[in-house]
Fold this protein.
Amino acid sequence: MTTTTQSCDFVLFGVLGDLAQRKLLPAIYQLERTGLLASDTQIIGVAREAMELESFKENVEQTIRKYVDSSEYCNDTMQRLLGKLHYCLLDLADIEAYRTLTQVVDNKKRTPVFYFATPPKLFPVICDGLASVDLTAQPARVVLEKPLGHDLESSRQINKHIAHHFDESQVYRIDHYLGKETVLNLLALRFANAIFSSNWDHTSIDHIQITAAEQVGVEGRWSYYDDAGQLRDMVQNHLLQVLSLIAMEPPSRLDAENIREEKLKVLKSLRPITASNVQTETVRGQYSDGFVGEKKVPGYLNEEGARDNSRTETFVAIKAHIDNWRWAGVPFYLRTGKRMPEKRTEIVIVFRAQPHNIFRESLPDLPANKLVIRLQPDEGVEIQMLNKVPGLGKTMRLNTTTLDLSFDETFSNNRIADAYERLLLEVMEGNQSLFVHRNEVEHAWQWIDSIIAAWELTNEAPKPYKAGSWGPTAAISLIAQDGRTWDDEL
Ligand SMILES: NC(=O)C1=CN([C@@H]2O[C@H](COP(=O)(O)OP(=O)(O)OC[C@H]3O[C@@H](n4cnc5c(N)ncnc54)[C@H](OP(=O)(O)O)[C@@H]3O)[C@@H](O)[C@H]2O)C=CC1
Ligand SMILES: O=C1O[C@H](COP(=O)(O)O)[C@@H](O)[C@H](O)[C@H]1O
């Protein structure tokens, strides 16, 4: 049973851009298909290309056909969605031009939602433009895409400018990982199951691994990516958000204020990485020519648009520590990279060894229990544990066995929604729980800036790794120096 969301005027700035076409319009279509959009909600596409409404509708229909699975395409849904569309020609850099929005946006009848799917440098002028035509007041909401700045200082500037026009309660900073079903499931796993909540600290857990491996390279985004690198592009936001959800204390309620407060405490407790420990706690890598599967792929420096001698990292591994009571002595190993052998995003919780081994005759070292949370693909949760191998032999033989809960199989009647569907739904409902508070963004930057400053001081080039490998060998040493291994090496 579904109920519709509040009536909204959903204004999509940058509607002809990549994100809007590939992710946002398909997500809006899915919300319409599920009956979640109120009948009088308007979807207002904004771009600087002159276009009749009919041509815009054709564009949207083609986009949906391209990016939505054909089994989910439905003509009735499409017609309903087309009936909600409006198009607005507007050069966002022209502060005088925003008046045109007031012809379609009616903040007395519906909640205005302004989605900034544009280059971040336009964010301040869009805010000014909206203010110039009185569209910033409550109940208006703004949705900001990442990256939010390049470092702490620039993100503060952006946040300051936004705060000048909007109250924090109106601001929705997107981190699409927070909309993934499996990331949301972390809350259920941790706080609805006593077997985990009572074993979730340094007394039971040896260490935690978070891996976000991608097969893709920079995919034509060289100029953006070369300025950012994997640390800013993936760790500052997605990995630190996942880490916060794994490490936070139980929030007293499932609401934005409590969840965000607890995540913030984790970010504040991250031990700084500085010049004194950057060489033992981090590894940077850059892919060279290689093969991903059967496909030959160019190295980073041979990608289209590449600049010679770039030292931007496409891989990073970090040993992080959270200096608080719960996590004392438990390292969090983070690892993310482009052009890795497979797409795999997962969290591995490795439990402590038993204090005494009564099975040493058959098994001198008892393998650790593991909880593996597969964020994507093949979403699911598995527990690796030891069982007796059936048989009458004198010595008891043990084997590691896996309890595997695959979401696809277990919830076969439930479609796994794309992260953007969930997040757009939450914005329309006015729920900020899955969005990032200004303080979180700034504390995450503070930790990241310190690593970047330390890298700059050491002035070392990133270590090369072959496309299609699991990163530089130094990443293996990073964890091996502690007598541990990455999960894929076992
Ligand atoms: N693409 C993705 O997967 C992701 C994107 N993001 C973020 O989302 C935002 C959008 O990214 P993306 O869609 O890839 O970028 P694109 O460059 O593909 O799209 C940006 C859109 O903004 C429009 N635009 C630029 N300047 C103006 C202007 N003065 N007036 C009106 N429209 C303008 C562009 O129009 P025109 O074509 O006329 O220049 C373009 O359609 C960025 O902040 C990005 O960092 C975040 C995560 C993932
Ligand atoms: O935000 C980003 O995320 C994608 C990875 O997202 P995923 O949902 O496919 O895991 C990454 O490729 C991109 O570089 C980054 O900007």
